[in-house]
Amino acid sequence: MAFSPDEDARAILLPAFDTLDVLDVMVPFLEKGGCSILIGETRAEYVARAMSAERLAGETPAVFQARIAELKSVTPHLIVAVDQELGGIQRLTGLVPPLPSLDEAHALDDASLAERCRITASAARELGVSMFLAPIADVIDGQNPWLRGRTMASYPEAVARLVSAFVTGVQSAGITAVTKHFPGFNDLAGDPALVDVSLLTPRERILHNALPFRAAIEAGIKAIMTGPAPVAAFDGQNAASTSPAVMAMLRDDFGFGGLIVSDDLDAPATMRGRSLLETAISSVNAGADLLLVGGGPHLDALCDGIAAAARSGRISLGRLSEAAAGVRRNAAAS
After folding, report:
1. What are the pLDDT digits (tens) for 78-126?
2. Are 6 and 33 contacting, i.e. CB atoms less than 8 angstroms apart?
3. Which keywords annotate this record (predicted)?
């Protein structure tokens, strides 16, 4: 089946919402070719690394499942993503059996940890979820206010073991795991979502700390998310999520053949003074397949801009089609 640039432009976007009240925006988006949604959290919940008391009181499994079912009545094969991190943000708190704590995870053997992750993922699957934006594979050996309270250990071997077990368990339940944030951000002076900041770590240290990404690939990870800030050792001008050099390294040096997901494209360290449309064009041209953006009424104009860029040659029609096809393959399994 052939798809138009307008349909492909919608297929490559992963719009994020902090509420379940999304039908007004999402139904037209899905009807025109969209096939993904991130059911996210508020900024306050993100900062707290916990869901609010109001959300926990009002959001039941039945409510969550019913809203996803409404979206799937429009697009049966729908990627429904959530942040469900081991030791970090868990969007499905109160809705599914919890993941083990970090202390528990480190104490469990690989098979037991994978099984605990499978149980959580199986319950999420029952709700209609098909993708976890997790595990976090970054190894923090410096400062990093962006990932504080979300990472799993301070040395690569320990993180790699947990990443491998998480990926194995989650994906055995039919959920796509998305290991993030390639190539790993060990030391950042600020939060890329708030300020334009770059990773200044030497290449050798970055590659040393990238062991968890290699472990994820060995475990059969289906998707990897690139980071939101420039990595000076590889490309000082473009954030990892808009960098051809970083994505080529992931494909060629790490041998990853799955879905490349961008981090939030509206982060200051990713946009670097550009518009969201220009940033999205750069991301797909660099090699990203699924672009994470804030959801809202602006989606239609953004999609139209991406389609127009493909028609004018600013994005290769082949690259756009390739990215959209990869997303649709993942959605078909959801």
Report:
1. 999 999 999 999 999 999 999 999 999 999 999 999 999 999 999 999 9
2. yes
3. Glycosidase, Hydrolase
Assign domain 5-332 to a CATH class. alpha beta
C-alpha–C-alpha distance, residues 76 and 331, integer Å: 9
* Cβ pair 78, 15 in contact under 8 A: no
Q: CA 81 to CA 83: how far, in whole Å?
A: 7
Q: Indicate the pTM of the whole model.
A: 0.97
What number of other Cβ atoms are within 10 A of residue 75's Cβ? 20
Residue in the block written with tokens 């790699």: 160
6 Cβ partners below 8 Å, 6+ apart? 32, 33, 303, 304, 307
| Cα–Cα distance measured from residue 332 to residue 334, given in angstroms and rounded to the nearest whole number | 6
CA–CA separation, 334 vs 197, rounded Å? 36
The answer, yes or no, to whether residue 50 has pLDDT greater than 80, is: yes
Distance CA 61, CA 115 (A): 22
According to DSSP, the β-strands at 230-231 and 235-239 are antiparallel
Q: Which two tokens stand for residue 105?
A: 């995870």
Separation of alpha carbons 78 and 60, rounded Å: 21
Q: What is the pLDDT of residue 1?
A: 76
Alpha carbon 32 to its chain centroid, in Å, reads: 22
Q: How far apart are CA 250 and CA 196, in angstroms?
A: 23
Contact 125, 140 (CB under 8 A): no
From the CB of residue 192, how many other CB atoms can be counted at a distance below 10 Å? Answer: 28
Which among 13, 47, 53 has a CA at the least distance from the CA of 32? 13
Amino acid in the structure at residue 168: T
Report residue 161's pLDDT band, with 50, 70 and 90 as the boundaries: very high
Q: Give dist(CA 172, CA 327) in Å, integer.
A: 20
Where do the DSSP E strands lie in 250-333?
259-261, 291-294
